[in-house]
Structure formats: C-alpha cells, structure tokens
Amino acid sequence: MNPKVFISHASEDKDRFVLEFAQKLFSRGVEAWIDKWEMFPGDSLVDKIFEEGLKEAQAVIIVVSQYSIIKPWVREEINASFVKRVTGKCKLIPIVLDDANVPECLRSTLWEPINDLNDYGESLDRIVNSIFGYIEKPKLERSPRYLSTIIDKYASINKIDSIVFSEICKFAIEQNTSNQISPSQLYEYVKTYDINETAFNESIDILDRKGFIEGVRVISGAIPVFNISTFGMDHYIRANIKNFDSITEKVCVYIMNSEGNNYEIAEKLNIPVVIVSHVYNLLKQKRLIKFQISISGHIWVNDISPELRRIVEQR
User: Fold this and answer.
1) Among 63, 91, 73, residue whose Cα is nearest residue 4
2) C-alpha distances out from residue 204 to 40, 163, 214, Å
C-alpha cells in the first residue's frame, strides 16, 4: 500500500509551496493529506485532523517557516506527532523554509532545508526515500573468498601468498609433473578465491624472493616459469600430507635397491612424482645421495652414502 503522510503547515505556505509539494509526493507514490483536499464545510477540525489525518499517517511532515512557527494549530499538530513518534507509530520529518528558526522541540530531529521553492528536487528525493525507508548507499558485496579460506599461513607469507603457493603445489601434484610451471597455468585456479591478477603476480614475485619457488626471471623482472623449491615443497607437504615419513622410508628402500628412477618409483608406489622427487631432493640436501636429472625431470641416482643404508636398516 502507498504510505500516507500528514503535512502540517501554515495557510500562508499552502499556495507558495505545500500544494505543489503534495502533488509531487503523489507522483512518487506517497498519499499526502492536506486540509484543502480532505476537509469540507461542516467537518470537525479535531476529528479530521487528529482522528483521520494524523492517526492514519505513517509520517508527518512539518513545514517550518516564518509563518508556521507562530501558529498554535501547527504547534498542536507537532505535539500530536511527537506522541506518535515516541510510540513508534510515525516518522517525523521537518522541512525548513525561509531559513526559519527551528522550534526547540524539533532541534533533535534531522530536518531538510529547502532554500529555493522552485528547485528542490534533491530534497524531495531525500524526503521520499525517508518515507519509504530507502537507504541510498552502495550495495554491500560479499567479502573476497580468500578472506574466509581455511588455508593456514606458511612462515613469513600472508594469506594471499599462502593460497597462491598452496594452489601451485596442488597443481603440480594433480598434474603429476616435476617440470617447470607457468604462472598463466595457475591463475585460472587462483582467481576463484577473488584474487586479482595484480595480487597474483605480486605473490609469485614474493614466493620467489622468499625461496618457496625458484623462478626464471627475464630482463623485465617477470617470472614466466618456475619450479617449486625443496624448501617450499617441504612446507607444503609437512602441512598437508600426514604420512610423508612413511612415504620417505619406502622411497629410500627403492633407491637402495636401485629399482628405477623417480617416475618409476612413483608409479610403483602410486604416489605423485612431485612427492617422490621431493624425497630425492631432501636426501640430496643431506648429502645422502647424488643424482643427475634430465630435462624431462627424470632423476637417476649415481651415488648413495653408506649413511643412508644405516638409516634404512635402523628403521
């Protein structure tokens, strides 16, 4: 239903403002109650104004002007409007014309000044929005998905970098490859977290500088391809693969028995080659093995430390 408003005003303001203003409210879907349209000879002033006009109004507009502030009837209507507002049944909207002094009883209420009676479109919009309870402010969108992800932060990198790095490792594992990775291959996965391309490229740069990946930089400073570093992969695996110690033991046994390269061992154990290759890299870091690696990523062990044999036998 269309909201009803009661316009309290002085008769001197009727022709110069109130009639046109009320018509504009009607054109906006607001039913305005003014005495000229609602009261006829023989009607009771009290019944019409207080029992019909004010009682049925969802809002009361008080036109404050140099004329109305001295009118006793306007004062009575203001008092009745305050009673309705206090009981939560009515909204009170003062409109100030002529830069008139606002009555003390209305000074705690936000009023709408109208300085030009021939041009008050913006004020009309605000008044109509207030009547309908419409708040004119930008729509609140959902927060970026990366803020609500449960991915934990890794040491020394923030949440966005952690997400990018996790997606890099998951991509390598799912693709079952130890070959170099291109950032362009990754962004389709990362953007589902509402991470824009600029932030993604920054993360690639930061991950390279902090040692989580090992990038190949061109003259411009961009990183067209990269590998996951041993340091980085160890962070990911320790955080996400619970049985990694068991996997390491099995890979070591295969290496001791010279049963193939990393791809062959990965196939025998039904484990992604990225994880098996990581075991090779850890063993090399500890000087337990030496190996050669082909362009295709195949690793061939050419030296095994006696210490590795002791470790395997003790387990």
Assistant:
1) 91
2) 79, 11, 10
The 10s digit of each residue's pLDDT in 210-227 is 999 999 988 888 899 998
pLDDT exceeds cutoff 80 at 42: no
- pLDDT reading at 76 higher than 70: no
**Overall average pLDDT of the 69-97 stretch:** 68
- 127 and 155 housed in the same domain: no
> 105, 132, 159 — which closes off a domain?
132
Please give the single-letter amino acid code of residue 120.
Answer: Y
> What are the φ and ψ backbone dihedral angles of 260, each rounded to 5 degrees?
105, 175
Asked if residue 139 belongs to a domain, the reply is: no
Residue 89 DSSP code: S
pLDDT > 80? residue 257: yes
Distance, CA of 216 to CA of 226 (rounded, Å): 6
- Flag whether 170 is in a domain: yes
**How many separate domains does the chain show?**
2
Range of the domain at 24: 4-132
Q: How far apart are CA 153 and CA 110, in angstroms?
A: 48
Overall average pLDDT of the 258-266 stretch: 88
User: DSSP letter at 181?
Assistant: B
Q: Which residues are bridge partners to 112 per DSSP? A: 95
170 and 231 in a single domain? The answer is yes
The tokens of 26 are what? 């009607």
Last residue of some domain: 86, 101, 132? 132
- What residues contact 282, with CB distance under 8 A and at least 6 apart? 230, 234, 248
Is pLDDT above 90 for 20?
Answer: yes
Q: What is the CATH number of the domain that holds 264?
A: 1.10.10.10
Residue 192 has pLDDT above 60, yes or no: yes
Q: Is residue 137 part of a domain?
A: no
Strands, E assignment, the chain: 4-8, 31-33, 59-64, 91-97, 112-114, 213-216, 225-228, 289-293, 299-304
